[in-house]
């Protein structure tokens, strides 16, 4: 069985695992205050060009998202997000469970159109409505699309106009930043957002996300909210050790690049055979549309997710490549089509 | 200034106020356990043909809605509601503040289409999604439309199919049940829903809504949740006294009828002059579309809400009639058009 | 049956009721933005000597308390309160239901000792603990005791030292400020607290509490939280009308004085007969200790609450007098002893 | 520096780490539905003698506690717990943050006295109080003490009498069950509680706790609450792999035994030198009382936590031994005294 189901099917990249083994018997304090976390945070600050940033390490993305929103917003404040955003769909209402409404806006490509911010603000006129206070976007998005620098700048501009925080979910940031269509650096993101996270789980860590707090308003007593949210790992250094590996050289980006290379190979191969895609996604998630019969055949040999039916005779499916996807798997898949 | 802004501009209907004055110096226990509340609850049970119902009195509708949802649902369970529903828009996220997501479905007339229930259920496939457990509808709706008996039956059928509670917000139930297009009785509603409330605030009470719990699963320890939600009035008998007046004869329905009569007069008059409406609403809220210039002129003499622009030159506004609207006001308004 | 069970057994003081009747058919906007609320708020600001205060009207005390705490605190912040405080006992966990821990400190007289603030702060050392951010006290307390000005000043001093908000629950503020042992004015309270409320329900209003926000940090977008908490009365002017009556002359304090006069008569009479009290409470709640047999006899003729057994043969009970208690009732009770 | 600060200073026991390395490149589905989790759950069911149990794996203890409480209780229901319980102190109000009050009872040894259950139930009489619905205890407790079988049976009896769930926090269950004073088996615990968890983090896992749901009422849709609580690890099999190692032979208990052996050596040595202890704790946490001067000297060479001052001249400190504590460290410490 070939796995194109998700980018977290395996354990960790061997270099990361080796670092965990090597440091295993070190004795440190817990909860992220150990030398590895301190060092990894400093590496990240340097790499993103923001020495003033606060860096907090989390085990997973859902945790990172709801802990941040819990910390950032007052009870009546709401989040604006594309209807396809992870927090709107696949987190079992974790944001609402902490008391906040997400005002969703419709999209075809899972990207927020800056004008939708204006429309949303206009609609929420007084104290009978929630008050939008934060914009949530993902890069890459849940449909594998990505933001251009000019788009992010425009979104930022609207956020500043209305006093909204801009938060970027970077679960797949490695794939975004190494996409052939990307024109941003991680420094750009660190200068255009109020907070974002650098995803590790989907890019070769055993687990781990690094949340970057840039706006000083968002930093105060953040660790209290982390602990209360169950987001503080006892042996916190496990997160520091992994992010040290990601950022001591260039591993973080190399793994994203590999996933993108494999996905490009697959995408080009599928397109060459004449199939269409749900959306144009130049990253490690692609959404080809196949005849139902073909989908059934593929399911016997490949593990993947089914997105949605397209008319009566076709189905859109999702293929996800990762840091661990071997080129041979792609070739085998193309041979099946 | 003529008030067509809402149906809660005045105090109480004189008969209700008189009852409050008359009982003012009685000494009773508090929190809704007094003889007036007990008596009013019994009157209601009889009137709706459900001797088994639990009846709880609330001061306002927002309270009634979120207290009920808090009591009925587990943390991961969600509400399905039309996007125009009061809980989705005008309650400042009170439902989300208690931890529950509202899954909204689009509508043009603020009414839920039964098929939308099926679609919503299909989409929420596993534990990564919230679990829809309750359907929320209003009668009349927030656009003044209402449900036919066959529609409510069909919604109930889907709810039973999927194990969903059906809750009906009756803030304007008096107007619904006395509408010329209505084909339901209050007994029908008490047999087709799991819970609903009989709205008093918008029908001539000083304040007050009577929540009716029909499904035994929803009754357990409800008063604990009421108290925790701040929904238990110390001098609870004020609510009982008012609902006794509503239901000892036929006052509740007479007041709804008056509001509808005034609105029919107004609606017919506006239509006769050739104006269009946003939607066909045979109840005490109507949504005529006027040229912008006319709207500006009307604003100087009438207090009303502006709904939304219609193209560049027209505006949809809302006129609401009430138990207290005098016929002369309607005639004056028609004369202005 | 004589009612000494609570101070909210009747409706409203006749002067207040009359004002409600007189204004009944006025047409105003809702939700507390009407002329009566605006006027009453201005009267209160003047009376408390704080023109800068924000005034918000609520229907009940539980609502006022949890809405305030919800608005004032971030999720990890906690309240310090005496273990007997109303929010710790009789509000069904309404504060915890909004996510905040109450750190309770033991007391014998329901009053907070300033040193308990220091001890509590010392104990909560880092992000593994909640962070105390607010002190909650009641005047009079739940045991009918009251704070001296010097005590309130000392509590305020500690609050300032640790950056804590000081909130005073004034459900029975009228009784506190007219107690023979009181040495504070309402102006003092308005200068020593960050927020407090002036209780109406237990002092002759049909219902109603006036929350006074003094610290500017606490004012921002408070109405959003009110609405979300279900604390915004549709026909809000009912609250304004009542507080106008309280403060246009001196009615608020006269009613408190009457309750205290009746309670003094009762207390002195009981003491003269040689009975003891649980605590010395110079206000409208008293806690005499009677032989069990006497308690049983009294229960047949008087409605009151039983507090706690004292040894095997005696019981402490609570008598509450109110604005409406007639002198004859007190005389009859004393005759029974 | 010798580490006696906590039992999670190192990474994982080598055998566990090796299993993680060995399975690293396996491709599995995520979120705990992989073969390792399924297998580990089955091993545990067999080991505890409850084939009917549901087993869920968590990353940490705070998560396990609040996710369980969130899933088990309705909004007005509360937890009874000893005031020293982890959830009352060191979880930053995580339980209250999900809306539930913890009713704390005082203790000297961190153990719940069964009579305290009766007293608590008596006090919470009606809907103005929260409703206790669950008892929370830890074994070993936060002071290193443990429950005898007869004590647990008695607590269970009271829980059954009042319809309370009994939950046992087993963060240090390995130490409890291998203590010289223990008279319970893990099977006993699985027959006397409604839910408990088997702690891994403090007993040699990289991280991980196994929650065991025994009462069928507690099982329904638990995974929804897990996901919403951020408690579902993407690469869930990391937890399964570790618990397979714990339970395929006897590793779980051997590691607890080692920690206890080291602590016994230390405790006996300290006692032999004439020092007292705060409480008698026959497990891997001990609380000796030393002169202040000695404490200062020890701090230079040993990492440990300071518990509380004892009079003016002494201090109670905490020493924690673990699966990884070498005998030589104990000998060195004893030599310093």
TrEMBL record, chains A, B, C, D:
The keyword Isomerase belongs to this UniProt entry's keyword annotation: no
Pfam families associated with the record: Beta_elim_lyase (PF01212)
GO biological process: amino acid metabolic process
Entry keywords, A to Z: Pyridoxal phosphate
Domain named Aromatic amino acid beta-eliminating lyase/threonine aldolase: residues: 7-238
GO molecular function, one term: lyase activity
Cofactor: pyridoxal 5'-phosphate
Superkingdom of origin: Bacteria
PANTHER family associated with the record: L-THREONINE ALDOLASE-RELATED (PTHR48097), LOW SPECIFICITY L-THREONINE ALDOLASE (PTHR48097:SF5)
Assigned protein family: Belongs to the threonine aldolase family.
The protein, known as: Low specificity L-threonine aldolase
Organism: Aminipila luticellarii
Biological classification of the source: Bacteria, Bacillati, Bacillota, Clostridia, Peptostreptococcales
